[in-house]
Fold this protein.
Amino acid sequence: MREFFKLFPEVFSCHEPNPDFCNLGTNYARGIISSHQAVQENEKGRRVLCCEVKRRKAKIYIESNNRLFSFLKPLREVFPDAKIVHIVRDGRDYVRSGMSGKWYEKDDKTTLRLRADMFHDDPYANKWQQMSSFEKIAWLWQKKDGFIYQNDGRSGLFKISNFIGFSEEKTLSCLEKIGDYKPHNTRTSKHKIPKYPHWDEAMKSSFNEIASEQQKIPNLTGQKYIQQNLILEYLHQNT
């Protein structure tokens, strides 16, 4: 997505810029820092990038960064005119990816990822140490997407461009330019677990117990399981 929006001359586009706010997102989600502190850290962390946007005489700044999941409201205080696009990944694909990445296989307390025992009122807080890596990843998916709801490639890029405000003509022109572009593929060719239809009943039961409610959000309910990871959800301006 970053490379696609680089094709628009009036856009400064980046992916997980420094600082990427990984700690900030986690700490705000846990209530360790206040909304006021989140605003200050966000403003401070993006000051240099804002200067770079001005230097390049760009009119639009685009950042793709899933570390922003928990503090959308403080983010709007810094950038009140921001438009936010939430790209929803099917939870079953998310778990498969996380298992291949060996998430939660080591000591939980050394990771920056959220844990249920960070939230005293979470129904899995007291069960966390007994949960498998599979169950923990399913929990992480529904927890992070839940924060956002509290507050396919070309088709998706077209919808995002339209939402931002680019003309259909300009978007189609850039889609043609990116047609032959092959971005760096971060997906693994070897997965630790199979696709959802081939999960055993115990895996399906565990996922459904933990994440079935989040899986019922618009655009995921009733959908066949297909090899399509990205489903667009637009957040209203008052999120």
Observations:
- Residues 133-150 form the longest helix (18 residues).
- DSSP finds ten helices and four strands in the chain.
- Residues 218-239 have pLDDT under 50 and may be disordered.
